[in-house]
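Lab notebook, bench 4. The sequencing result for the construct came back, and we need a structural model before the next group meeting so we can plan mutations. Quick request posted to the team channel:

Model the 3D structure of this chain.
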Amino acid sequence: TNQTGINRQGISAIQLLHDAAEVRLVAIFSPEHGLFGKLDVPLIENSEDPLTGIRVFSLYGSTRIPTPEMLAGIDTLVFDIQDIGARFYTYISTMGHAMQAAADNRIPFVVLDRPNPINGVTVSGPMLDEGRQSFVGFHRLPVRHGMTTGELARMFKAELQLDLELDVVAMEAWDRSAYFDSTGLKWINPSPNMRNLTEAILYPGIGLLETTNLSVGRGTAAPFERFGAPWLDADLLAAELNALDLPGVLFQPLDFTPDASKFEGEICRGVSIAIIDRERFESVRTGVEIARQLRRLYPHEWEIEAYDRLLGSAAVFEAIRQLRPYAEIETIFDDELRKFMQRRSQYLLYR
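Done. Here's the predicted structure in token form:
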């Protein structure tokens, strides 16, 4: 769990389980960014929960999989973390690894389900290529999967053939077409640079860019709502993107100076992204179209090779490199996306 694991009254799952008469909380496991979601570092050490004094095992440290030693004395593992709906957001990888460890050690696994904040209907982007599973791509999913953590847990158990006792505690009255701001729940930053729903909606498309030599606004007040680099021409790129007339979005030239992360202290010429119609906006398509324009306008400056790290599709990557039209790129993954929709349907818990 982390800081997002709370109930409607703001009480953490840690406190609730610690205080429950019939439960003995013996260990806590934390994901990337740590127990309180404030760390943006490559390695997090084990620690102690200041409220309960219970040992906190980091699953973003020397290991990303719970070890038998960590699991000693545990009867049940409970997962309670807010995801944001993109394949490469690592909390679902942490869940998958924990499920595998639970299966290997004959420990039941419980998921306290939470909403997909960017809705549970929209599914888009290429599938992860077979054999490219990693911590930023635990399972073969499209970029935007449209599932909750509980639904993904059901998929992981079945498709990875885990011999696991899995219990998903489902939500009540969640409409899968809803965005997070209609749930009545308080937004808690799931990670240091995921500060509002708009950024979460943008993330499946803009997040794809951050492995390249671009700033995606980390170290500024609006991560994922802007991107840029010292070598860009902000006016030109904004004009070219607006000329595409992409649904539900406008682009404005913007200069910004990150105070951390990539290009720290340097002036970046870039673009601010404004979602003007959330229902029409297509995050993955927008991200791919941005990549196409970067490839076209800056074939030498933009380091495209790193773009495939999160994209995870060699065929789509090559099509972007060759500046194929988006409509043609979409046909590359359409068939696999349809097959995924069929796979996905049997694991859905909400209508």
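The chain has a mean pLDDT of 98.
Will bring this to the meeting.
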